[in-house]
């Protein structure tokens, strides 16, 4: 094998089962994943994956290669951890998803220098692979299936359906936040009550701005919504609680920096929200045409 980097592609396709899933984890495109897997198969003279419905299933030989890649990744992580332990200053990278982006954790960032002065925190919105060392901690409300990870619950979020106070008695439609699967129950409730959405956005923060200016409802995390002037939750729709999970690689179970970061995250979610959630007047959801 001339390029050991090909093992990453084999491991990613085995983990995620689809070319698109592997490409997303590796931050590349489907064509590159397909080309690297095909090239490795030709170089070794053996089929590595077979199509099984919508998934790619690893052959026994691919399973062996994936195990080799996993053990190599574990050893590299251990070496990297030892190197980081001997260096100064300390650093921890934290990635988070849309739900965490709207949480009270973001408010706690301003106090980081005072609460944890000896660690440099790098917080980034968006996905990243723990298995491939792209981040140290990933925060999400959606359980992960990536291998060799430690899962720890660090908090709870509440979500609800909100509207602008100026529009609470004349709502016309609602907005879907694309890709936020934690809000699917809210989206289903809105669909049942109000019909098809008028708009689809991929940014919950932008969504909060839009509903303050337009007669639409949207599902938002309560932590964020209560800090916005002029938002009201719709009490006829049920609120929902979401467990917040922190994931890190199993090779870092004893890493003190990781545990200091997890303690800060957990304490941030315990902090009380000073702003109050104000209910809207229960509007008449017999909708008028937006074009009327």
UniProtKB/TrEMBL annotation:
Query: Which Pfam families does the entry link to?
Result: HTH_1
UniProt xrefs under PROSITE patterns: HTH_LYSR
Against InterPro entries, the record matches this protein to: LTTR, LysR_HTH_N, WH-like_DNA-bd_sf, WH_DNA-bd_sf
Q: Which domain of life is it from?
A: Bacteria
What are the alphabetically sorted keywords of the record? DNA-binding, Transcription, Transcription regulation
MF terms (GO), sorted A to Z? DNA binding; DNA-binding transcription factor activity
Specify the HTH lysR-type domain's residue ranges. Answer: 1-59
Family matches, as SUPFAM superfamilies:
Periplasmic binding protein-like II (SSF53850), Winged helix' DNA-binding domain (SSF46785)
Write down the PANTHER family for this protein, in alphabetical order: TRANSCRIPTIONAL REGULATOR, TRANSCRIPTIONAL REGULATORY PROTEIN
The family note in this entry says:
Belongs to the LysR transcriptional regulatory family.
Name of the protein in question: LysR family transcriptional regulator
């Amino acid at each position: 094998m001339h390029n050991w980097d090909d093992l990453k592609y084999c491991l990613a396709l085995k983990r995620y089962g689809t070319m698109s899933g592997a490409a997303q984890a590796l931050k590349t495109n489907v064509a590159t994943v397909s080309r690297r897997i095909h090239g490795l198969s030709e170089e070794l003279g053996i089929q590595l994956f077979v199509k099984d419905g919508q998934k790619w299933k690893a052959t026994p030989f691919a399973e062996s290669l994936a195990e080799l890649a996993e053990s190599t990744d574990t050893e590299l992580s251990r070496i990297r951890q030892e190197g980081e332990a001997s260096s100064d200053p300390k650093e921890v990278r934290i990635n988070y998803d849309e739900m965490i982006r709207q949480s009270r954790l973001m408010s706690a960032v301003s106090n980081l220098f005072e609460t944890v002065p000896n660690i440099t925190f790098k917080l980034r919105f968006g996905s990243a692979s723990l298995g491939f060392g792209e981040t140290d901690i990933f925060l999400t409300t959606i359980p992960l299936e990536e291998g060799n990870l430690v899962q720890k619950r660090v908090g709870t979020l509440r979500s609800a359906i909100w509207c602008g106070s100026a529009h609470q008695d004349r709502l016309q439609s609602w907005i879907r936040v694309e890709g936020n699967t934690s809000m699917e129950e809210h989206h289903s409730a809105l669909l049942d009550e109000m019909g098809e959405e008028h708009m689809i956005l991929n940014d919950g923060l932008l969504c909060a701005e839009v509903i303050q200016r337009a007669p639409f409802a949207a599902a938002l995390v309560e932590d964020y919504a209560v800090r916005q002037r002029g938002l009201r939750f719709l009490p006829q729709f049920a609120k929902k609680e979401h467990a917040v999970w922190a994931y890190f690689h199993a090779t870092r179970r004893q890493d003190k920096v990781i545990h200091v970061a997890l303690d800060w995250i957990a304490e941030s979610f315990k902090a009380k929200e000073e702003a109050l959630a104000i209910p809207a007047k229960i509007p008449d959801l017999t909708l008028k045409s937006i074009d009327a």
